[in-house]
Amino acid sequence: MTAPTLSPSSSSSSTRRGAVFALLAAAGAFCGAGAFAQSAPPVPKTLRLIVAYPAGGVSDVVARALGDRLAAQMGITVVVENRAGASGAIGMDAVAKAAPDGATLGFSAISPLVLSPHLGKLPFDPLKDVAPVASVMYSPVLLVATPASKARDFRALVAEAKAQPGAVRWATSGPASLGHIVLEQLRAAAGVDITHVPYKGGGQQLNDALGGQFEILSTNASPTLTSHIQSGKLRPLAAGAPARLESLPQVPTLGELGYAAANINSLFGVFAPGATPPALVARYNAEINKALASPELRAKLTATDNVPTGGTSAAFAKEIASEFESNGRIIKAANIKAD
Length: 339
Known about the structure:
- The chain is an alpha/beta fold.
- The chain is about 40% helix and about 20% strand.
- The strands form 2 sheets. It has a 6-stranded mixed sheet with strand order 2-1-3-10-4-11, sandwiched between helices. Strands 7-6-8-5-9 form a 5-stranded mixed sheet, sandwiched between helices.
- Helix 1 runs antiparallel to helix 11 and helix 2 packs across helix 9.
């Protein structure tokens, strides 16, 4: 399947803001005290879990582990289907267009809902056609120095960028990626000129980082990245995360370093088609939270440098709405365009 093309959106910002508040209102209805008690359609015996990323990656590993837990808890069969492409938009489009009968859920980062809409028109309305079910985890963003950089810590990096405007090259997985958003926030907050080096995806950029083709790489935490850090090939300077990582306790967060606006990470969760009955959404939310409380799933998450989250559908929707508004401001201010 080919990725959906991004074309200029004709939606006004006021319409989008209205959709955000509609999303919050709908999510609140999903998690109201009586939602779970309503007469809900039975949970299907087979659940299709669409993963918006390729097989074998960290998100796929986590999604399959979550599917296994849900299958055991609910006595159902969970079939994982990878629908990768367009930074998660293809998978989320498949979720949006699925029958709202509880037989299809999706696992994705929130970026197709909070970044993609500001860059172009999608084949679905991310604020109406998809219902947040439950937050599952956040994946920290690590800022690492390559062999091309002399910076031993983050403050040294900022000092180098100020002394030599444009000399520091910072690689991300592409324009308007989370790493790019972090970079733009740091540029603005620190008043530095850093050269953006956009890639398409993460494989080649990691190889080039090891080869010293640029000074700084911002990317999601992963066991592969951690192994290169432990071997000394890459040096961690900071993390975008609410707290220091257990695997890298010596690495400060960007918040600790005084860059709260740049202290962001990838939030992942489970989504349903927008018209899925609230009682079914509430049932799945409860089951996902139960799964996240299991030692086995928590161990799987922490082993891949991800941090379990959980919570209500309403809280998840609120985070999505907040990120949507924040990213819109950043993308407009930095004049970020899609490829």
